[in-house]
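Aggregate trends can hide what the representation actually does to any particular protein. This step matters because it turns folding into a mapping between discrete strings. For completeness, the protein is quoted in full, as a sequence line and a line of structure tokens:
=====
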Amino acid sequence: MDTQRRTGEEGPVPFRSSRFFCVGSKWYFTTREGFDSGPFASRERAETGLKRFLHVVRLLPEEQQIH
């Protein structure tokens, strides 16, 4: 569990869990919005998939970004 504060957070740190999970032998990542992406062959590939997803989200115009 991540116990660090994020920028702009105040008060107690909310519960957080890993963005990555495994079902059978396939790996997935989940977003804060509840979107699950996968399957990936390994956790490392799921981590790469998440980095690519976040890169694309950052390229979106501010009004279209996922919050």
